[in-house]
Design brief:
heterodimer, A: 429 residues, mainly alpha, MetI-like fold, 3 domains, 3-stranded antiparallel β-sheet, two-stranded antiparallel ribbon, elongated, B: 490 residues, 2 domains, 2 strands, 2% strand
């Protein structure tokens, strides 16, 4: 319990929240986004060919839960349920998911793109393919439900990467500008030199160790990556230790400014000159077998410039404000001022950029899978939509997945729009 | 103004240089061997006699030389003391990978190179052994074993290949000819194993390659600058207009690019024109009618339009309007196959029919976006004091809007121009794919898939330059629209 009770109506975020709530459309979109997120989260329970609960040969099972456990490496299916055709079993009772199909498994009775309105070869209405099937007899609705999962993962993961990179580079550029990142000349030269040496020891000499670890397991790769990062930090630390005695030499002792803003801004300008979609294609070409996770990372790596620009502009404004000066005169370290005082106040426009960024990441990913990138072991909206090109009479393959993309993109755009208005001080009533 | 433009154009140079470097690095780190693709042959394919194999290798090496792939990548390379300075001379990409791995494991490039050459000798000896009924299967085993040597840096695999070969050679007297070469290879491998210098891996080193490298050859060329040269092997380089030869189409990249840039530019320009013609009046209209039902309907409609993925609309149009099982209003492809002898208007109407659907897809998204921007800009201006002044002195509404507010509200729309332009080039990838238009986007996309690097590099460079020009134009337009913005004085 804090002694001083802050009036929640006074805080900035409370104000933004209040403004946002006033925008009916944005609020409505927010609820829809939450619902879609729920669908993504619960996808295995909404569309699965295993029953959620069943009683089989006297025992009660929870196959969907069990499968999730098995996927995480905990437990195994009992012998009598291993490699069974779940639909053919004789249950005492069973509660099925609303859509009793998995997106990649084929229904051999309904191949060759069966329309939702056509007569389907199914035992009862419960097994109906509500959104039809594709060429191979895969259920479209199930694909759409599991596709929601992919779309949300793409949006969140790629924006997470983009946000971290954007905040890092944007804040470095905006807070330090061209003059404020100062250190002794000797230290700077050593840091630049040792940067390359650190890369050499951390990644150059360890490239095979890293790639071997990646081919074995992801956890092992993460461990090796951590070791690499540790080596990198250690080498940079050595550089700064060596810099200490060098301070005795007057020429090297002089403080010089590193043109942080110019370096970062120029690099961003260069990156922006390549059309984004083309840049992504270029990076994708360097990967042997692009899968959905690599695509997420690439989208993240190529879309941070927008966020960085926002943060930079905001920090350029913030850093000349009085409270930063106050913090400086109190003798706080640069890192503390940047992390605790400057960045939190520059974050609000980033929220807008993230909302729009999620929309565009989902759009980019679906156009990539529409073009046929990504592996065949995941069903995405874009891939479903592209299968409409092969069987042109199958309108349901075009309408439903495309509509899902459209709704998701619209919803996130509307949220971004609402946030923009809610954070605009001119519109405050 | 002129000095400003000149200065900007000068700034293009480092940007283009940096982008060319970035693209080049990305392309050269992509997997796959272009020369291999061009010759359409599998790695380690079953050659017949040693002479055939030699001829095949020779053709392959010639091709690599012609493409400049035998050169080191860049002016210098940053690696370690152990790393091979002549690795780029090894032609096969898979072999290079194996040798690189061996160098990493043992750190003695000289010995490894000797081992590689003895393995090559062994292969040739095996190929020279006459085939007959008693040797055929043994020869195939031997050849596969040698191939394993090329492809695997793994000690176990290498040793088992050796053991297999020794067993085969020992069994069949006709294969004894291969014995000395095999022994030499085994010895060379043992030397590699016994004299490791792994410490060299931990000493950073910079290798200088001079101007004889792939990047220099691609950008500036290796042909002499001021005298004519008939040598077909030499490249003139990108800056002198020699974009190289497509690996896939086997034609000069410049022809391919000229063929496709026409389509993209025509469609983009028409699309930009339509976009601006619709969106500016629409934006002004909705801003003036702010708050009315018609404004709300239009604004919502525009927002919905803006969020509609164009590849979805494109696919739906083809299915429902493109003469499938539904309506047959427009042809589903974007470019008509017109006969040059037809009268002009026949050709025009044919092209127009083909272009209708692509143009709708190209424009609706950006005009929705632009209208929203225009509306926002107009609203911002209409709120200002001088507009109130203009109104209060009794000017009629249309004069206020078009004479006083319009020019100032154009600023945001111009900013967009710089992003509409590149977006049309980049975004065209998917649309050109849907409507099978042979434009820049499609060319770039297919070239990326086919690892056709010269085309990819050229397309990237062209779109970059177009983007830069787009930025420049929008900056100039700024100054034209807003007299307060001046680039000439500080």
């Amino acid at each position: 319990m804090s002694a001083v009770k802050t009036d929640s109506n006074q805080s900035y975020w409370a104000g933004v929240k209040r403004q946002f709530r006033k925008k009916k459309v944005a609020l409505f979109s927010f609820y829809i986004a939450c619902m879609l997120g729920l669908v993504a989260l619960l996808a295995p329970f909404l569309a699965n060919e295993k029953p959620i609960v069943c009683k089989y040969e006297g025992n009660i099972y929870f196959p969907v839960f069990k499968q999730i456990g098995v996927d995480f490496g905990m437990g195994k299916f009992p012998q009598e349920l291993l490699n069974v055709k779940w639909k053919k079993l004789n249950y005492d009772f069973a509660i099925w998911p609303p859509v009793p199909y998995l997106p990649l498994n084929q229904d051999d009775n309904n191949t060759q793109s069966v329309s939702p309105f056509a007569e389907q070869n199914v035992p009862s209405a419960k097994w109906k393919h509500w959104f039809g099937t594709d060429e191979l007899g895969r259920d479209v609705l199930s694909g759409m439900i599991h596709g929601t999962r992919i779309a949300f993962t793409v949006g969140i993961v790629s924006m997470f990467i983009a946000t971290i990179l954007g905040i890092l580079f944007g804040s470095l550029a905006g807070f330090f500008g061209d003059e404020n990142f100062r250190m002794s000349r000797g230290r700077m030269w050593l840091n630049i030199l040792f940067f390359f040496i650190a890369i050499f020891y951390a990644y150059g000499t360890r490239s095979y160790i890293l790639s071997d670890a990646l081919s074995e397991s992801f956890a092992g790769f993460l461990l090796q990556m951590l070791i690499s990062i540790f080596i990198f930090i250690a080498v940079m630390g050595i550089a700064n230790l060596i810099a200490l005695p060098l301070k005795k030499i007057p020429y090297l002792k002089q403080h010089v400014g590193f043109p942080m803003d110019m370096t970062i801004s120029r690099s961003m300008e260069i990156l922006v000159c390549i059309p984004t979609f083309f840049l992504i294609l270029l990076v994708l070409a360097t990967v042997k077998k692009p899968n959905i996770y690599i695509i997420m990372v690439i989208i993240g790596l190529t879309s941070w410039t927008g966020i960085a620009r926002y943060i930079r502009a905001e920090l350029l404004k913030v850093r000349s404000l009085e409270y930063i000066e106050a913090a400086q005169s109190l003798g706080f370290s640069k890192a503390r001022i940047l992390l605790k005082h400057a960045i939190p106040n520059a974050l609000s426009p980033v929220l807008i950029a993230i909302a729009f960024g999620i929309a565009s990441a989902i759009l980019i990913e679906s156009s990539l899978s529409f073009l046929g990138f990504g592996s065949g072991d995941t069903v995405t909206w874009g891939a479903l939509l592209s299968s409409a090109r092969q069987s042109s009479q199958a309108w349901w393959l075009a309408i439903f997945p495309g509509f899902a993309i459209f709704i998701t993109v619209t919803v996130f755009n509307l949220i971004g729009d609402g946030l923009t208005d809610a954070m605009d001080p001119r519109l405050k009533s | 103004m002129l000095t400003y433009v000149l200065k900007r154009v000068l700034f293009f140079v480092p940007t283009i240089f940096a982008i060319s470097l970035l693209t080049f690095i990305l392309m050269s780190s992509a997997p796959g061997d272009p020369a291999e693709l061009m010759l359409n042959r599998a790695v380690g394919g079953d050659g017949g006699q040693a002479s055939d194999k030699l001829a095949g290798d020779k053709a392959y090496n010639m091709l690599r030389k012609r493409l400049g792939l035998d050169l080191p990548l860049f002016y210098f390379s940053f690696s370690n003391l152990a790393s091979a300075d002549s690795l780029h001379k090894i032609s096969k990409i898979d072999h290079r990978k194996t040798l690189d791995r061996l160098t990493n494991d043992y750190g003695n490039w000289k010995e490894i190179e000797a081992y590689y050459h003895s393995a090559k000798k062994l292969e040739l000896t095996i190929l020279d052994i006459p085939k007959d009924s008693s040797t055929t299967s043994a020869l195939i085993t031997l050849r596969n074993a040698v191939n394993n040597l090329y492809l695997s840096p793994n000690d176990k695999v290498i040793r088992s290949s050796f053991a297999e070969m020794e067993q085969q050679v020992g069994k069949n007297s006709q294969l004894a000819a291969a014995s000395p070469a095999l022994n030499a290879t085994v010895d060379a491998y043992e030397t590699v194993r016994q004299s490791p210098t792994t410490w060299k891996n931990y000493i950073p080193a910079v290798h200088l390659n001079g101007t004889k490298n792939q990047y220099h050859r691609w950008l500036l060329g290796d042909a002499p600058w001021f005298s004519a040269s008939d040598d077909k092997m030499l490249s003139k380089g990108f800056v002198r207009g020699d974009f190289g030869t497509s690996y896939f189409a086997k034609r000069p990249v410049s022809t391919l690019v000229w063929e496709s840039i026409g389509y993209t530019m025509t469609i983009s320009l028409i699309a930009i024109l339509i976009t601006y013609l619709i969106s500016i009046p629409l934006g002004v209209f909705t801003a003036v009618k702010k708050g009315t039902t018609i404004d709300q309907t239009l604004s919502t409609g525009l927002f919905v339009l803006y969020s509609m993925p164009s590849f979805w609309i494109g696919t739906m149009m083809i299915i429902f309007l493109g003469g499938g099982d539904f309506l047959d209003w427009f042809p589903p492809t974007g470019v008509a196959d017109v006969d040059a002898d037809d009268p002009f208007f026949t050709r025009l109407s044919m092209q127009a029919a083909h272009l209708t659907m692509p143009l709708i897809c190209w424009t609706y998204g950006s005009f929705a976006y632009l209208s929203r921007q225009m509306r926002g800009g107009m609203l911002g201006v209409l709120r200002q004091d001088y507009i109130r002044t203009a109104r209060s002195k009794g000017l009629n509404e249309s004069a206020v809007v078009w004479k006083h507010a319009f020019r100032n509200s154009l600023l945001p729309v111009i900013t967009i121009f710089s992003s509409v332009f590149p977006a049309m080039i980049g975004g065209s990838v998917v649309l050109e794919y849907i409507f099978t238009i042979p434009g820049m986007g499609g060319l770039g996309f297919h070239s990326v898939l086919r690892r056709d690097y010269p085309v990819v590099l050229t397309v990237t460079m062209f779109s970059t330059i177009l983007t830069l020009v787009g930025y420049l134009i929008s900056d100039i337009l700024y100054a034209v629209v807003d007299p307060r913005i001046s680039y000439s004085k500080k």
